[in-house]
Design a protein that fits this description.
The protein is 67% helix and 9% strand. It is α+β, with helices and mostly antiparallel strands. Helix 9 packs antiparallel against helix 10. The longest helix is centred in the middle third of the chain and has 98 residues.
Length: 493
């Protein structure tokens, strides 16, 4: 069994299967003499099946071996998470009931690691159990050593007293010396135990602080990455209002020169007309200047560390801003890419108390993902079923494949007030999400993008900002080849 496990550790599955076969032969011959031999054969068979991703076979072997830690590992790879915790808890309970410290140590360590990201309190609880069990195991050995020393000394004292009374004083001195040594040993052991216990209490606190610090660094890295993606879009967006400002400024210079000529001629009616044009142009200059200022402000808001302060926010304006910036950011990367994008805004949408930086990052992530999805499908030649749903897009009549219209990449955002909630949807007609991974998309570090193109943190952080930060909900509706719709719901209160 151990040789087979060794080959599994170096990914030589064929050699592991060979030794599993030898173990089965041993079970046939000697299994009636040792139940452990049979269970070991099932455990090795289950581990080989798990490595080959034959999960049904692995579960069958681990069930026969009553090996709950193996069954938990199957569900680590296949889901659901609840089953992972369930079987690890069973393994822990059996280890405690059977007083098997080895199983308790493994189960407690795995449970502590499992809850490290989701429930630090539980992680700390199982980590303490692991450390206590480990300490208890070693403390038992020390007690046995001290008892053995004590018994040996008592026997030696008894023998010497029987042989010669003359050595009594010497034996008393020797006994006192031995007692002193034993006391010193016990004192050292207790001092070490107390020291280890203090360190054990410090480790969870330090681990929690490191976890919090790492999470903050990851969030900031993700924000800086998204800011970098926006740079090209911001440059494009800010160029338009600046062009208007420059053009109208040049026009005003010509009008001022013309007005000076009319003043010299004394043509006051023409001067008034020119002054009216100047005032109108100044309004346009101010409007586009404010537009450029708003774009810069949005960029600074996105890069600034969030204070967590909620303020009344126009979600329509926020969605419109990031929709255009995300699109032009992608266009800057690939000038051949074109897509239809649209904001269907509820004109009666009230302002909502939110953290604008956080909700802006959520919208930016979802919109960027939507444009990425339609870009991928467009790059692949518009493969997949051309299905468009929702009020932003019209359903196409069923047509034969050869008559199907060409693929049109489309991203639509809509806002709507429903009862006491604001509903924001981000919809695309990309390739969609396979059913097998739909439950994993909000998990940290899970991504379907190629290596180097995604951190797997975007949707996880978006989920935390909406659900934990604002008490809202975020859901996904998607099927493979039929597009994806993310639905955000926020309370007005």
């Amino acid at each position: 069994m151990q040789i087979g496990r060794g080959f599994l550790m170096i990914n030589q599955v064929d050699s592991a299967e060979y030794y599993a076969h030898l173990l089965e032969i041993c079970v046939q011959k000697y299994g009636h003499l040792s139940p452990d031999l049979t269970e070991n054969s099932y455990v090795l068979g289950g581990e080989i099946a798990l490595r080959q991703k034959d999960y049904d076979k692995a579960l069958r072997y681990f069930r026969l071996a009553h090996y709950e830690l193996g069954r938990a590992q199957v569900f680590v790879e296949t889901g659901p998470r609840d089953s992972v915790v369930f079987y690890r808890l069973i393994a822990l309970e059996k280890g405690q009931m059977g007083e098997i410290p080895g199983i308790v140590l493994v189960a407690a360590r795995l449970l502590a690691r499992h809850f490290a990201d989701t429930d630090p309190k539980k992680a700390n609880q199982y980590l303490n159990l692991y450390l206590e069990t480990n300490e208890k195991l070693y403390s038992t050995e020390r007690i046995k050593q001290a008892e053995q020393i004590s018994l040996t000394e008592e026997q030696a004292t008894f023998d010497l007293q029987q042989k010669e009374d003359a050595y009594r004083n010497r034996l008393i001195l020797l006994g006192l010396l031995s007692a002193f040594l034993i006391s010193a040993i016990i004192s050292i052991v207790l001092w070490q135990s107390n020291r280890y216990r203090r360190k054990a209490n410090e480790k969870p606190n330090r681990a929690y602080r490191e976890l919090t610090s790492t999470q903050a660094q990851l969030i900031q890295s993700e924000k800086l990455a998204s800011l970098g993606e926006l740079t090209a879009g911001i440059a494009h967006e800010i160029q338009n209002p600046l062009n208007f400002v420059n053009n109208f400024s040049e026009l005003n210079r010509e009008l001022i020169a013309e007005m000076e000529e009319e003043i010299e001629k004394g043509n006051l009616s023409e001067v008034k007309l020119i002054a009216t044009d100047l005032a109108a142009n100044e309004e346009k200059i101010n409007h586009h200047g404010q537009r450029a200022s708003g774009i810069v402000k949005s960029m600074l808001e996105h890069s600034r560390t969030s204070t967590g302060t909620k303020e009344p926010t126009d979600l329509n304006a926020l969605a419109d801003e990031y929709l255009r910036l995300a699109y032009h950011g992608l266009r800057a990367k690939d000038s051949n890419f074109n897509a239809k994008y649209e904001l269907i805004a509820d004109p009666d949408l009230p302002k909502v108390n939110v953290v604008p930086q956080d909700i802006g990052r959520v919208l930016l992530n979802l919109i960027s993902n939507a444009f990425y999805a339609v870009h991928q499908r467009n790059t692949e030649g518009g493969t997949g079923h051309h299905v468009e749903t929702g009020h932003a897009l019209s359903l196409q009549p069923q047509q034969p494949p050869q008559q199907r219209p060409p693929y049109q990449p489309t991203v639509t955002i809509s806002t709507q007030k429903i009862d006491n909630h604001i509903v924001i949807t981000v919809k695309d007609n990309g390739n969609g999400i396979p059913e097998s991974i739909k439950d994993k998309i909000f998990q940290p570090f899970f991504t379907t993008k190629p290596t180097g193109q995604g951190t797997g943190l975007g949707l996880s952080l978006a989920y935390d900002m909406v659900v934990k930060g604002h008490g809202g909900t975020i859901q996904v509706e998607a099927n493979e080849n039929s597009g994806t719709t993310f639905i955000i719901q926020l309370s007005i209160n």
